[in-house]
Amino acid sequence: MLFNSPKYMVFLPIVIFIYYCLPKRFRYIWLLAVSYYFYMQWSPLHVLLLFSTTAITYLCGRIIDGIRVREKESTVPRLPEGRH
Question: Distance between CA atoms of 53 and 37, rounded to whole angstroms?
């Protein structure tokens, strides 16, 4: 499916309509699912690339969040300059 194909011109409005009908907490899952479907239309092997990219990005995000949480817990509140 190409961006300028008639099939895509039908696909996109349906995806957008369903996106706005879903509750906000499920919208990202919908977009992920239709993204996988879109890429599978071109070549099913591209799903492996998309899945690995999704997994790596998710894991890196979790690692970054864990580092930020640990940094917040380890910092000690300091008094403003000039007050001792």
Answer: 15
